[in-house]
Amino acid sequence: MDADLPPEVALLARGLTRIGLRPGGRLLIVLPGRAEQWLIDLAAASLGAVPAAVDPATRPDRLRHLARHAAPQLLVLESAAELARWRPILADLPSLRRIVLVDDPAPHELSLATVSLTQVREAGLLTAPATGRSLPS
């Protein structure tokens, strides 16, 4: 898998795997047309996951509808401010297991596992590219 991917995409794919994304898993990417949106999308697709992008400017009632329909295991948001906007919707997403924040460190007050994109990249560094096995510590 890794040999055919650009290095950043391969790194993110390994990191997404380490945080629990699996083939067939769904993720919702809510970023305003940033490079990270496309990198995460490609990384997820390379794993056989199902990425879906949503415009962050979408009205909250429409966001709720789209998110319920997508039933994501992973939600990718730009920042803690965007997370605050999503808080009322999170309870309606029973499949959601993890949130990735692109710009901000993960807040610790959520019971749901929230990580930063930096942490996803770091997790990708812990996996050997050629074998997919964890590197010795």
Automatic annotation (TrEMBL):
Bilayer-crossing regions: none
Pfam families for this protein: AMP-binding
All copies of domain AMP-dependent synthetase/ligase, residue ranges: 8-109
Gene3D superfamilies in the record: N-terminal domain of ligase-like
Protein name: AMP-dependent synthetase/ligase domain-containing protein
Species of provenance: Dactylosporangium maewongense
